[in-house]
Amino acid sequence: MEIERKFLIAAEPDLGGASSVAVRQGYVTRPGDSVSVRLRQKGETFLLTMKSGQGLVREEHESRIEPGLFETFWPATEGRRLEKTRWTGALPGGETFEYDVFEGAHAGLRLVEVEFDSRE
Question: The organism sits in which domain of life (predicted)?
């Protein structure tokens, strides 16, 4: 189970000691499907993720996959892809943040995602 909040960011924040990685991802499923199936490449790591549920609390299952398997299924994501740079760091309360700067069709979009242990 994951509890996450996303925030739209208008201006570039001070990222301090945050690290970054190039990300490309595509969705096998379509918007509105009850389960989301996503392929993601983060640097040299390839992942398959399934999410279900809605709102703040969702079930998430993620597995590393081989690059060849990623490339086999990548064509199924045509029209549902995005590219971004992801910055990761720690907030003063110890929570991890992920700051995404989107490229391509979504250029200019900036989001911060924070995962929490509880809804509060």
Answer: Bacteria
> What is the domain range of residue 87?
2-116
Rg (CA), the chain: 15
pTM: 0.83
Between CA 81 and CA 9 the distance in angstroms is 21
* Catalytically active residues, by annotation: 27
Q: What six digits make up the tokens of 106?
A: 């979504």
Q: Where are the beta strands (DSSP E) in 1-120?
A: 2-8, 19-27, 35-42, 45-52, 57-64, 81-90, 96-102, 110-116
Distance from C-alpha of 82 to C-alpha of 84, rounded to nearest angstrom? 7
Work out how many domains the chain is built from and give that number: 1
